[in-house]
Amino acid sequence: MRIIHTADWHIGRLFHGVNLLEDQQYVLENFIALIKESRPDVILISGDVYDRALPPGDAVRLFGEVLTRISRDSQVPVIIIAGNHDHPERLSYAQGILSQQQVYTVGALNDFFRPIIIEDSFGPVYFCPIPFAEPSFAREYCGEDNIRDQEGAMAALTKKITAAIPRGKRKIALAHAMVLGGEVSESERPLTVVGGAGAVSLDSFRDFDYVALGHLHRPQSMGQSSVRYAGSLLKYSFSEVNHKKSVTLLEIDGEGKMSHLEEMPLGCRREMHIIKGRLPDLLESTPAGVEREDYIKAILMDEGALLDPMGKLRVRYPNILELERPQFTAILEQGRPTVDHRKMTDGDLFFSFFEQVGGGTLSEEGKDRLNQVLDDYNRRERGL
Questions:
Q1: What is the 3-state secondary structure (H, E, C) of 131-197?
Q2: Is residue 280 scored above 90 in pLDDT?
Q3: For 50, which DSSP code?
Q4: Mind listing the pLDDT tens digit for each residue in 190-241?
Q5: Which tens digit of pLDDT belongs to each residue from 322-347?
Q6: pLDDT-based confidence at 188, cuts 50/70/90?
Q7: Residues 345, 240: Cα–Cα separation, whole Å
Q8: Which residue has the higher pLDDT, 193 or 112?
Q9: Residue 135 burial class via C-beta count within 10 angstroms: exposed 0-12, middle 13-18, buried 19 and up
Q10: Beta-carbon contacts of residue 80 (< 8 Å; ≥ 6 apart)
């Protein structure tokens, strides 16, 4: 069976105030072309279709057009799960009708939380779509009061969805999760709260022949090629400037073993670069490999004051989005803590604040209560 695995489209995303919809439309056109060329048996989209729970109308329209063209022109089954950015109920809209066209959307934990069976010449393959779900949702759905974190939620949900699958059959999971040891970037919204409660281990996936992961934006395999992040559709932060964005094309044989795995690049409308140097030099000549319309972060090495450097750079680089002056950054950061609070989760920020103000560590009971509060907050943020 030939499979295309992709994730983290984040349709409707804004990057430094710039709407990336045209960039996303460009790369999705290439995605449709790849489908026609590679002729997969199934397409897996592992969450974060949209960038927020209430996506703009243009984002919904683009996603609908892509699904329509895949279903109409290629007639390939598509399985989609909700990520932490998606509203599960909105993503699952009309799932009964869509499933008749072999477009399977699994957002909420409801009657559609079950394996989807697709057959090839060797027999059935059981696809197990496991949408992102806060621990409280998994606790209620599975009826297990001891679920307190994402690890417990994932273990319970994988157990539940595989319970009725005959032994020895091929099983493939779709999941949206932060797996321990994965390489993160700045554009992902952290799933962790106090004590790393949002991360899951590989143990939850040991019974699957392949695990199609979403959430981390760098394409990467987790210890073994059968547990893999496809990565995001585009670069969504300057920390990803060296990433090679792609979708994953793989094949499994009759025993569920992977016989082929390949990263398939889709290209992009505008590249992303970090350029470095003195202002006069960057104004005089464009660095090699940089196109005029690319997204740019400039690191200026000039000393002393500069008059409107961003405005001057924008004449040569109209899509410059960020400017950094290391000389002044170093001065501002003198005496500050070395921890980058921008990369800390809400829970860890509170934990650090409690230690500094209260002069002690948060008790286990306090951590549980904090996790519960943050869990409720995250549910409200997703419109649940």
A1: CCCCHHHHHHHHCCCCCCCHHHHHHHHHHHHHCCCCCCCEEEEEEECEECCCCCCCCCCCCCCHHHC
A2: yes
A3: B
A4: 775 444 458 899 998 999 999 999 999 999 999 878 999 999 999 999 999 9
A5: 999 998 765 555 555 555 555 556 66
A6: confident
A7: 20
A8: 112
A9: buried
A10: 45, 49, 91, 103, 104, 105, 106, 129
14: phi then psi, degrees, rounded to nearest 5 = -105, 135
What's phi and psi for 7, nearest 5 deg?
Answer: -165, 170
Secondary structure of residue 125 in the 3-state scheme: strand
CB atoms under 10 Å from CB of 260, counted, come to 11
Look up the pTM and report it.
0.87
Torsion angle of C-alpha atoms 92, 98, 100, 101, degrees rounded to 10: -140
Backbone angles phi, psi at 310, to 5 degrees: -65, -45
CB 33 within 8 A of CB 267: no
CA dihedral 344, 348, 351, 353 (to 10 degrees): 20
Q: Which residue would you say has higher pLDDT here, 335 or 242?
A: 242
Question: Could you tell me if 175 and 5 are in contact, meaning their C-beta atoms sit under 8 angstroms apart?
Answer: no
Number of residues that this document lists for the chain: 384
Which strand (E) or helix (H) includes residue 373? Answer: helix 364-381
DSSP letter for 286, please. P
Over residues 109-115, the mean pLDDT reads 93
pLDDT at 363: 74
CA distance 166 to 105: 24
